[in-house]
Amino acid sequence: MKKKSILIVAGETSGDLQASHLVKSLLSKNPHLKIFGIGGKRMEAAGVEIIHDIVELAVVGFIEVIRHLATFKKILAELSMLLETRRPDLVILVDYPGFNLRFARLAKEKNIPVVYYISPQIWAWGKNRIAEIKKYVDKMIVIFGFEEELYKEAGVKVSFVGHPFLDIVRPSWKKEETLKHLHLNHHSLRVSLLPGSRKKEIERHLPVMLSSCEKIKLVLPEVEFILSRCKELDRAIYKRIISRSKIKPHSLENRPYEIMDISDLVILSSGSATLETAIMQKPMVIIYKTSFITWLLAKNMIKIPDIGLVNVVAGKRIVPELTQFRVRAENISKEVLEILNDEDRQENIKKGLRQVKQKLGECGATERACHIILKLLD
């Protein structure tokens, strides 16, 4: 009997993480599955045969995407060929809608079932994509409860499994270990910096983060700063930016939960990390800056008042957001200092974060998603 095979596509670091956990779960229940596709180091370690590394797809912004169109077209053509030559039993798409929805169409044209795990953010960009999803996706597996209602209303087959972060967001080290590793004082005030997982995000966010740290240090001389570095990115990117700053933060590579765990506040790039920080129950200031043209286009397309996922899930702004022209050192430092100097505000933020965590559902999301997928393979 022919062994079942799955073609899986994740285009970003966050997708690589979620897909790796899903793959581990699938292979633990069916070790004979053959899983291949696009991903990163985590998916490869989980057992995926990597056809293309996510580094080739990890671009953000309209202009950046246009510059890489030839690469995207080439990869799409290669994946389309694999649909013919290797004929997978199922395609699993993880987030990354610009690329994945195009690929979903190709898979459906070849009568290969498509599962979408972690929905495109249709609630942010408007509902235009729902008709496309209904046409090309056989099963949508969502991680936010409010997404389930949107898809049900549109007649899309959908299941809400809860957020997988509830299972994985926890530090591997004890606080004492992290403090010792970083040579930090147990009683120091600590602010962590998570500038993002892409090269462009680091280049746009880290310099202004460090400038804001200089201003914070003038008011709170005892504060310590910790930088979360992404292992997949060249260290030289960080070194070049830090060399121009008076602030020389402590740093750890691929240890965001350990860093959050010892922090009093987190300054971070908008994205899935805001939910991870919420689960860790840490006050935060969210920033995001992109190219001017990307910002201009997004400004006219985004249909919701907040972009930080933690605020979206809360249904209101519970932590500060600074975007584009407001991403300035004086604005960031002002927000940080106001939170650090106001215990009542800190407690109100933590109360809001507890409510967000409750809205994310229950633990076991990946196992529930795995069960749905295996039933489709039968």
Q: Please state the overall shape, judged from the principal axes of the Cα atoms.
A: globular
**Number of helical runs?**
19
Class derived from helix and strand content: alpha/beta
Q: What is the CA-CA span between the terminal residues?
A: 13 Å
Relevant CATH superfamily of the largest domain: Glycogen Phosphorylase B
Radius of gyration: 21 Å
Query: Which architecture of the largest domain per CATH?
Result: 3-Layer(aba) Sandwich
Strand content: 15-25%
Order of adjacent strands in the largest pleated sheet:
3-2-1-4-5-6-7
Roughly how much helix do the residues carry, as a percent range?
A: 40-55%
CATH topology of the largest domain: Rossmann fold
- CATH level 1 class label of the largest domain: Alpha Beta
User: What profile does the largest beta sheet have?
Assistant: 7 strands, parallel
DSSP strand count: 13
Q: pLDDT under 50 segments (min length 5)? A: none
Task: Indicate how many domains the architecture comprises.
Answer: 2
Mean pLDDT equals 92
List keywords for this structure.
51% helix, Rossmann fold, 7-stranded parallel sheet, globular, 378 residues, single chain, alpha/beta
Topology:
Blueprint: E1 5-10, H1 13-29, E2 34-39, H2 41-46, E3 49-53, H3 62-67, H4 69-85, E4 90-94, H5 97-109, E5 114-117, H6 122-125, H7 129-136, E6 139-142, H8 145-154, E7 158-160, H9 165-168, H10 175-181, E8 190-194, H11 199-219, E9 224-229, H12 235-242, E10 250-253, H13 256-261, E11 265-269, H14 273-279, E12 284-288, H15 292-301, H16 309-314, E13 321-323, H17 329-340, H18 343-359, H19 365-377
Parallel strand pairs: 1-2, 1-4, 2-3, 4-5, 5-6, 6-7, 8-9, 8-11, 9-10, 11-12, 12-13
